[in-house]
Amino acid sequence: HLKLLREKLDVYIRFIESGELLEVVPKARGRTPTIRIIGSFALAEQGARLIDQAAMLLKGAGIELEFVLRV
Asked: Phi and psi dihedrals of 60, rounded to 5?
């Protein structure tokens, strides 16, 4: 699952960094893009570590990353 999560994050990041987000959603200009991962189960330790590390890196690029547990 971690590999799939990394691949999915990479796709979202490319979408944002390439400027495609602003082409598709012009109203997003001037806003902080947020990648929100909604999970049905709590993250395992490795998954939580991946999200935390990615969130720290992305914050430096002006992108927010969050995990939300759907109950």
From this structure: -65, -25
